[in-house]
UniProtKB/TrEMBL annotation:
Oxidoreductase as UniProt keyword: yes
Protein name: NAD(P)/FAD-dependent oxidoreductase
Catalysed conversion reaction: [thioredoxin]-dithiol + NADP(+) = [thioredoxin]-disulfide + NADPH + H(+)
Pfam families with a match to the protein in the record: Pyr_redox_2
Domain FAD/NAD(P)-binding, first and last residues per copy: 2-275
Organism: Kineococcus glutinatus
Taxonomic classification: Bacteria, Bacillati, Actinomycetota, Actinomycetes, Kineosporiales
InterPro entries listed in its UniProt record: FAD/NAD-bd_sf, FAD/NAD-binding_dom, Ferredoxin-NADP_redctase_2
Length: 304
């Protein structure tokens, strides 16, 4: 497994319980590290992300899996043996099959102050954080494709929502929809977020106007961490997302993906489920290889 988040650890758990030799390579920089709690994960709601990963690691190693702390820098074919994974510190790991769960990164709008408040009071997922900020003064930084629909979803958690958008960007139907649900519309260029006493206080626009807000929802641009897959020759779409089937199988035989590397909207519970699904497919692939090798050995007079 390349990546030790929920998808990679879930897959490792399934495969280690199936008696496979499993190694999880983890760089130790999970996307949800700034978040204080995981939500929407049945039986684990409210658990800090670090505790979830620690529990997953313990389960994997309890079944004989190995966790390797390190950063993979390149994936290489290794003849009939499968693949070789090169690490930044010079080590390498050989594997018969690969599951890549390197996730994605969030590219935020170029607004001063956003990144420093990320996952605190500047948020992106209303399903992850909406309940915790319900009833407060919420803002939505709009202007991009789908942002109005996103604001309508955020509206579910508060009656006081303001939609920030560049002037002239809203269509008449979008404006009508926002007004109909009492979503405030503020048009203009956002200059920066206003913070005092380590809390978001508002959003500053041109001309010195400040709109008071407690929380700002920002739909980021999702960028897949697909460089390793590209280097291995996996097919990517025009936006850099790996092309895969329903089980996560990529265009390169023996390579699968799961979680946010292929599904930008996967929450923690979704990513874990996709990791489990991919693990079943990986094991089925390895069984096919085992059968083929056993038949070849049998034909040569050797019983595996």
């Amino acid at each position: 497994m390349i990546g030790g988040g929920p998808a990679g650890l879930s897959a490792a758990l399934v495969l280690s319980r199936a008696g496979r030799r499993v190694a999880v390579l983890d760089s130790g920089s999970p996307r949800n590290a700034p978040a204080t709690h995981v939500h929407g994960f049945l039986s684990r709601d409210g658990l800090p992300p670090a505790e979830l990963l620690a529990a997953g690691r313990a389960e994997v190693t309890g079944y004989g899996g190995t966790i390797i702390d390190g950063t993979a820098t390149e994936l290489l074919p290794d003849g009939h043996r499968g693949f070789r994974v090169l690490l930044a510190d010079g080590r390498h790991v050989s594997a018969r099959a690969l599951l890549v769960t390197t996730g994605l990164r969030d590219e935020l709008p170029d607004v001063p102050g956003l990144r420093a408040r990320w996952a605190r009071d500047v948020l992106h997922c209303p399903y992850c954080h909406g309940h915790e900020v319900r009833g407060r003064k919420l803002g939505v930084l709009g202007g991009g494709a789908g942002a109005v629909r996103y604001a309508q979803i955020v509206r579910q958690w508060s009656h006081d929502v303001v939609y920030f958008t560049p002037t002239g960007r809203l269509t008449d139907p979008e404006r009508c929809e926002l007004v109909a649900r009492a979503v405030g519309i503020v048009e203009g260029d956002v200059q920066h977020v206003v913070v005092a006493e380590d809390r978001l206080r508002g959003v500053a626009l041109g001309g010195g106007r400040v709109v008071p807000r407690d929380v700002l929802f920002v739909p980021p641009r999702f960028v897949p961490n697909s460089g390793l897959l590209a280097g291995l020759g996996c097919e990517l779409d025009e936006h850099g997302w790996p092309v895969r089937d329903a089980d996560g199988r990529t265009s390169v035989p023996g390579v699968w993906v799961a979680g946010n590397i292929a599904n930008p909207r996967a929450q923690v519970v979704t990513a874990a489920g996709e990791g489990s699904t991919a693990a079943l497919a990986v094991n089925a692939h390895l069984v096919e290889v085992d059968v083929r090798d056993a038949v070849d050995a049998f034909g040569r007079g050797h019983v595996a």
